[in-house]
Inverse folding.
């Protein structure tokens, strides 16, 4: 018995393709330049002392590491000793490997103001070409003598890996104060139309294949999804509404709690952590809120989905319904909860007067991938739960550790660079980071961020469906 | 309508059912997790035509309920296959899909959905379900406030008012007070006479004799006899007494 016929499946196939084309075009507009290039800025190091007058014959070489594609701005912090000086300074940016001069310009020092940041590159971007990312800034001067030469602020305590300061051919500790803006280009963004078309062609071929399989009465993943959607649509809706009605029945505020909960959590965390972390984080309330809402969805869906098989034992042993419906509906219920908690998030965004850009719609992407990720987790854990009831207690501990391991209320920079792989391995970090960039920074995250989200969600759902499929026939013996 | 081919069902009986991680590790370590196999059904084959009423008899533990569960798709047989054409309403336990926080009306939708009906269909049947159950305005009350009789009436009405193609009944023929009992057994007879395929387990041989076209006799998981009601029932009686 099939719930739909040949013509309908063709229509569905065409619909999917049209939706894909629409999404691909809309995405191009929303993501904008974000997938083509990323602009960044390296914070200046504040220098407590000056390096000494730059007179004729003084050569300052500051080596730095920058693994990007171009430098768009370079700022140094000179001091004139509060007097008028004469002469010229020459500034070169040199490729650390080939020793080629990438940029060269001279400035009249009399135009410099005391303690004002001075932009040495402003006219054009400097393209960076080498693979090691090693570059040097070389500063010389001409016509400057002791008494009328400028100097630069400098921090003798600060040394980053791979950088070094060389004064008159002798290496010294520390680094001069500078900051730079850079751009990084992504191949993906440049060739986006081609990628999108390629993916579209694959999609079309897949649908044609699924259609062919349908005509030969063979099963395919697509067909299964459509069946679930059509045949069990009503059941899923009923089970979701049961979840909701059951959850808020006999509570006075009811559904309003879904709305209030994240807001209250945010306020508590804001009060507790604002003095510690606020200064390092742009728009701390929104930063917190995004973490709370997304991580809240994760823990809620997994802890509710965990018991979906065991909790519905009464139904599973009495009526036949595909068993994956139960974990699926629990995650859908949590998803609706997440949608509701987006309202308080919007309120916080409006209150903090965050400037919004179109990129906020990219959050849809991170929510979908997060949903798929959670679904996979729920499949694994709900089947584990049938065989080992300890799973739920273990999960309580794990989710607590997981929460502290994810930068929800502390900044990402809390871990030294060496340990940052801990974040990279944490799927939740990627989903949350993605949303934060899209909302707070107002730009599309780099293509790699999309890739991380997709990979984690696909691995999770594949593993989850595999485990669930393998074990589902045995459930009934253990319920 | 229903084809059962060489179905066998194997259960594992471990001395103690291991249900936690600690126990698994301990038993694995001690190597005492002896598993005993037990075939609840072995080599069961038969087929049922549309509209037939099949009675299933046998002593306790002969595999009747397991067979019903396999046919309803709740369990997957270890070997063999079951083909079912048409939608099944299992009445293994009335009201198993009820949610006690919801009202009777909401439970009609929920139960209808669980039984695999569309929204439109449930909506069209809603009134006749309410009428048959005689619950009146109580249908808008949460069912946690219902008496057990009211619950059974509602559950029975949902299961029978939707005109199932195949019905699987485990020892439930009449529920509620004597008035509703009459009504419900009449309804069952009506369904059985009206083209619904019924598989029906009972310990009352009189009932089986009265209602069924054919009888399947299970004995320790094997088909002892399958055929004409009169003949099978008589042999079964002689076997018992």
């Amino acid at each position: 018995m099939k719930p739909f016929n040949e013509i309908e499946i063709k229509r569905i196939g065409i619909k999917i393709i049209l939706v894909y084309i629409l999404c691909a075009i809309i995405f191009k507009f929303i993501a904008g330049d974000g997938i083509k290039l990323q602009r960044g800025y390296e914070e200046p190091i504040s220098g407590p002392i000056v390096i000494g007058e730059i007179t004729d014959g003084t050569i300052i070489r500051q080596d730095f590491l920058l693994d990007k594609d171009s430098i768009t701005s370079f700022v140094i912090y000179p001091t004139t000793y509060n007097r008028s000086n004469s002469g010229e300074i020459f500034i070169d940016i040199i490729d650390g490997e080939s020793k080629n001069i990438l940029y060269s310009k001279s400035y009249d020092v009399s135009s410099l103001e005391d303690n004002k940041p001075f932009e040495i590159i402003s006219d054009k971007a400097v393209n960076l070409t080498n693979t090691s990312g090693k570059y040097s800034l070389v500063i010389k001067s001409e016509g400057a003598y002791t008494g009328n030469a400028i100097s630069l602020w400098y921090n003798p305590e600060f040394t980053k890996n791979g950088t070094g300061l060389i004064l008159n051919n002798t290496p010294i500790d520390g680094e001069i104060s500078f900051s730079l803006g850079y751009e990084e280009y992504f191949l993906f963004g440049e060739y986006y139309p081609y990628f999108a078309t390629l993916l579209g062609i694959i999609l079309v071929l897949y649908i044609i294949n699924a259609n062919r399989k349908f005509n030969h009465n063979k099963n395919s993943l697509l067909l299964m999804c459509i069946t679930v959607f059509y045949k069990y649509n009503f059941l899923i809706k009923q089970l979701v509404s049961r979840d909701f009605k059951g959850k808020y029945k006999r509570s006075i505020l009811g559904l309003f709690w879904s709305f209030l909960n994240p807001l209250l959590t945010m306020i508590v965390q804001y009060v507790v952590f604002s003095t510690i972390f606020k200064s390092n984080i742009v728009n701390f309330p929104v930063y917190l809120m995004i973490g709370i809402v997304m991580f809240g969805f994760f823990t809620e869906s997994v802890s509710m989905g965990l018991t979906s098989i065991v909790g519905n034992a009464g139904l599973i042993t009495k009526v036949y319904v595909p068993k994956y419906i139960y974990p699926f509906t629990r995650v859908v219920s949590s998803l609706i909860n997440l949608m509701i908690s987006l309202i308080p998030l919007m309120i916080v965004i409006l209150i903090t007067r965050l400037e919004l850009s179109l990129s906020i719609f990219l959050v849809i992407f991170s929510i979908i991938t997060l949903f798929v990720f959670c679904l996979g987790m729920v499949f694994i854990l709900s089947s584990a739960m049938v065989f080992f009831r300890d799973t739920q207690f273990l999960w309580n501990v794990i989710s607590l550790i997981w929460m502290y391991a994810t930068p929800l209320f502390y900044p990402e920079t809390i871990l030294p660079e060496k340990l940052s792989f801990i974040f990279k391995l944490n799927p939740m970090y990627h989903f949350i980071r993605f949303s934060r960039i899209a909302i707070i920074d107002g730009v599309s995250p780099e293509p790699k961020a999309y890739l991380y989200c997709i990979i984690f969600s696909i691995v999770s759902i594949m593993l989850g469906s595999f485990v669930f499929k393998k074990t589902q026939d045995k459930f009934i013996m253990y319920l | 309508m229903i084809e059962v081919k060489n179905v066998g069902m194997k259960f594992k009986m471990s001395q103690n059912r291991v249900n936690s991680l600690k126990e698994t590790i301990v038993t694995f370590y001690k190597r005492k997790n002896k598993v005993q196999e037990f075939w609840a059904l072995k080599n069961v084959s038969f087929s049922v035509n549309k509209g037939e009423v099949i009675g299933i008899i046998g002593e306790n533990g002969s595999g009747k309920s397991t067979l019903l569960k396999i046919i309803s798709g709740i369990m997957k047989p270890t070997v063999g296959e079951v083909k079912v054409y048409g939608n099944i309403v299992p009445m293994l336990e009335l009201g198993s899909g009820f949610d006690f926080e919801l009202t009777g009306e909401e439970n009609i939708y929920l139960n209808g959905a669980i039984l695999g009906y569309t929204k439109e269909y449930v909506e069209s049947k809603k009134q006749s379900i309410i009428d048959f159950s005689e619950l009146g305005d109580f249908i808008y009350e949460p069912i946690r406030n219902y008496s057990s009789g009211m619950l059974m009436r509602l559950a029975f009405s949902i299961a029978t008012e939707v005109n199932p193609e195949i019905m699987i009944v485990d020892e439930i023929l009449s529920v509620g007070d004597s008035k509703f009992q009459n009504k419900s057994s009449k309804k069952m007879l009506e369904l059985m006479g009206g083209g619904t395929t019924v598989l029906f387990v009972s310990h009352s041989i009189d009932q089986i004799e009265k209602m069924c076209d054919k009888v399947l006799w299970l004995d320790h998981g094997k088909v002892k006899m399958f055929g004409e009601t009169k003949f099978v029932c008589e042999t079964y009686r002689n076997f018992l007494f």
Observations:
- Chain B touches chain A at residues 11-12, 17, 19-22, 24, 69, 72-76, 85-88, 90, 92-93, 96-97, 99, 101-102, 106, 109-110, 113-119, 122, 142 (CB under 8 Å).
- Chain B has a mean pLDDT of 84.
- Chain B has two domains: 2-86+201-240, 100-161.
